Amino acid sequence: MIQVGINGYGTIGKRVADAVRAQPDMAVAGVAKTRPNFEAHRAVEEGYPLYAAIEERIDRFDEAGIDLAGTVDELVADSDVVVDATPSGVGAENKPLYEAHDTPALYQGGEDADLVEASFNARANYADAAGADHVRVVSCNTTGLSRLVAPLSETYGIEKIRATLVRRGGDPAQSGRGPINDTLPDPVTIPSHHGPDVNTIFPDLDIDTLGMKVPATLTHTHSVNVTLESDATAEGVRELLESESRIFVLPEYMDIDGSGKLKEFALDAGRPRGDLWENAVWGESITVEGDDLYLFQAIHQEADVVPENVDAVRAVLGEMDAAESRETTDEALGMGF
Ligand code: NAD
Predict the structure, then answer these.
(1) What pTM does this model have?
(2) CA-to-CA distance for 223 and 294, rounded, in angstroms?
(3) Can you tell me the distance from the alpha carbon of 162 to that of 227, in angstroms, rounded to the nearest whole number?
(4) Domains in the chain, start-ordered, CATH in brackets?
(5) Which one in 57, 77, 205, 285 has a CA-CA gap of 20 to 30 Å to 236?
(6) CA of 91 to the centre of ligand 1 (A)
(7) CB of 318 shorter than 6 A to ligand 1
(8) With contact defined as beta carbons under 8 Å apart, do 218 and 260 qualify?
């Protein structure tokens, strides 16, 4: 069993822990937290060994009556791979800790690309992570775009992509984020940083992105225009996307008109936390006009990077090839509807 340590047990970390636990070839070595909050309480209830991320705060866990298994240093030493799911920028501060123990580390999309040897998407460049000590699983938006780009570029070739990313203001638990009552060009400069981030996965892709932020918490929504290099039909593109395990093409009859019904659908389907690990592409939106493909997709920001982290664990250790890993991950999680 691959022993996976998870440093940072928040929105992404707790989901990755559960996904790792579901895998036939992995176990959660433990999770590290900075303070004894509700998530620390849950980690213990879930049976995950809990480690203190900051040694000086051990007393606070003791006072809360939460048992610790040790400090993050011990967790890193006992792990075959660490998934760093700490807030943006903290991963970079943690890098020397992983280096000191010679433990390969996976970072999240909030870290800079130049922190790592490879940026990662399981569908697009799994093999690039083989043997790397520091790998970044790209952000939710970049993951969502990469899952589209890979099959489209393989099948039709891509001349250029223009995408407008209508981003949620914050996750449901981020009560301090906004906007509360506004629609923000964010960043107001064009292109946004998202296109260059996609280029960390597809270096030669011609892509321009525009960012916005709106008062919503459930998902991001992408409006995508892809100029293709060869002839395509809407039906052909739809069939292609339907054949991708991490893309869910929403059938018209389901009458899912937005993120609200989409999340309700995921909850009704029994998904943990109502998570949607797949890109949700509106079938009706898939349109081809001349060389141009248009579509809308929703990206559940808290969830789509979770299977990618699981695959990245195997990729760095060279445990399986890309297709086998994705299939194993998908089966263990129950991907697809
Ligand atoms: P979060 O704030 O929900 O969770 C981070 C956790 O790390 C918190 O529990 C925090 O207490 C803990 N932490 C802080 N400092 C720490 C330290 N020094 N050591 C150990 N733990 C520490 O954040 P998140 O949303 O899970 O984001 C984590 C990373 O994932 C970021 O890089 C973010 O950009 C990226 N990401 C987030 C989302 C999203 O929508 N939430 C999507 C994709 C990628």
Answers:
(1) 0.98
(2) 8
(3) 8
(4) 2-138+305-333 (3.40.50.720), 141-299 (3.30.360.10)
(5) 205
(6) 9
(7) no
(8) yes
**Cβ atoms of 68 and 49 closer than 8 Å:** no
Q: How far is the CA of 134 from the centre of ligand 1 (A)?
A: 17
Pocket test for ligand 1, best of 12, 42, 66, 174 (most atoms within 8 A of CB): 12
In ligand 1, the atom with minimum distance to the C-alpha of 12 is 26
Ligand 1 centroid–CA 13 distance in Å is 7
**What are the pLDDT tens digits along the chain (337 aa)?**
999 999 999 999 999 999 999 999 999 999 999 999 999 999 999 999 999 999 999 999 999 999 999 999 999 999 999 999 999 999 999 999 999 999 999 999 999 999 999 999 999 999 999 999 999 999 999 999 999 999 999 999 999 999 999 999 999 999 999 999 999 999 999 999 999 999 999 999 999 999 999 999 999 999 999 999 999 999 999 999 999 999 999 999 999 999 999 999 999 999 999 999 999 999 999 999 999 999 999 999 999 999 999 999 999 999 999 999 999 999 999 999 9
* 221 φ/ψ angles, rounded to the nearest 5 degrees: -130, 130
Mutate to test the pocket of ligand 1, among 108, 145, 275 (most ligand atoms within 8 A of CB): 108
Ligand 1 centroid to residue 241 C-alpha, Å:
30
- Residue 114 makes CB contacts below 8 A (sequence gap 6+) with none
Closest atom of ligand 1 to 93 CA is: 18
Q: Whose CA is nearest to atom 14 of ligand 1?
A: 86
